[in-house]
Amino acid sequence: MKYISTRGHVEPKGFIDTVLMGLADDGGLMVPEQIPAVSAATLEEWRSLSYQELFLKIFSLYTNDEIPYEDLKELVATSYSTFRSPEVTPLHQVNDSLYVLELFHGPTFAFKDVALQFMGELYSYISRKRGEIIHILGATSGDTGAAAIQGVRGKEGIKICILHPHGKVSKVQELQMTTVDDSNVLNLSVHGNFDDCQKVIKDLFADLDFKGRYHLRAINSINFVRILAQTVYYFYAYLQVEGSAEKKINISVPSGNFGNIFSGYLAKQMGLPINKLIIATNENNILERFVNTGEYKPGNFKSTYSPSMDIQVASNFERYLYYLLGEDAEKLSGYMSKLQSEGKITVDGELLAQVQSDFDALGAKNQQCLDTIGKYKQEYDYLLDPHTACGIAAYEAFSGNGETTITFATAHPAKFDEAIQLIAIKQEFPAPIAALFEMPQHQTVVEHDKEVIIRELQAFYE
């Protein structure tokens, strides 16, 4: 299998070269030339597999044998050895129609660990095998940064710089990043919001001279490996529901950058028989508006109780648009140019009908988020984090009679105690999180100025 750019101006690449490229050199996003198909019979064969075994089956469809099977097996085993649950992503039944897939059992208590622990091991493997210097550069709305840092801290041949919006992540998210004192880690706290941080990252990756000179590699979900690693838990969740082959299974996904939900779209295109893919977001509801009206237009940024979804420009939207437009790179490029020049994209007619066939979407309001947390704690003694609460609100809005919904719990509630306290719920922090509050912080606060950020990066990488 080869990988191509959504914009059509990159020669087909192998798996490892795709990993190293991250953002395509023509400004697009890398996708497989063909999506492999998984039959119903194969799905049944996979039902008894462990998470790690399932991961190997799915990745083997995409790696072109560039990573020997035994090496890949070792990478997977190491990646998930630090998770607190032997199932990696255990499935919890809440009621007759609702399951929650707990994605927060990794070292930083968030779903990003599932992909980024593997990516950290993969980058380290590539660095050793190819003798390559790897400088990871990424932006985070909170969870990606901590998980990425945890995945590569202290690893030889790798340096990582993460930009996060100053004062716009939760305190625990901030501490998980900034209490790391390894010499290969740099935290830049940027005055601005996540979209500001993300734009700087994209601009730097689009500068091919700068990208090549400093060996820049992507850890954000612009990197296809992030998408693929997340696809695994869609299959795992579906296969853990007893009798799922005879049921209508919906999946409700908190998603701000379109990466997590696009992983579900990829799984469905591979053959996973998901009934409804439900996008859950917050008052930064660009994705809800797109699904409902066909207009993709960044709005006014709002700070919410679910800050990891406080995003107006969704990086992975381009991958979905590519498939929506029939894998027509020229047409996709036209749409993206229009977004750049006019600030919006609009689809209608058959295209909008296809969008509404692919997804349902809900942007949960702040109060609705808090009310949902309180309701599920009272009725089921199950504490949700604010992002998962948005997912549950979307389940309540779109799950029909006779349907079963799996909602992704994308973070442990201890990461967002500021919201939990607003409804007078007192929670006990896990010991690794409680310990963060006694540790010194290491970060550099900078203005939202690309030249200032470049100078910080040059000093760090050189």
Automatic annotation (TrEMBL):
Keywords: Amino-acid biosynthesis, Lyase, Pyridoxal phosphate, Threonine biosynthesis. One of its GO terms (biological process) is threonine biosynthetic process. Residues 85-316 form the Tryptophan synthase beta chain-like PALP domain. Pathway: Amino-acid biosynthesis; L-threonine biosynthesis; L-threonine from L-aspartate: step 5/5. GO terms for molecular function: pyridoxal phosphate binding; threonine synthase activity. It holds the Pfam family PALP. Its EC number is 4.2.3.1. Belongs to the threonine synthase family. Catalyzes the gamma-elimination of phosphate from L-phosphohomoserine and the beta-addition of water to produce L-threonine. PANTHER family: THREONINE SYNTHASE FAMILY MEMBER, THREONINE SYNTHASE-LIKE 2. This is Threonine synthase. It comes from Paenibacillus agri.
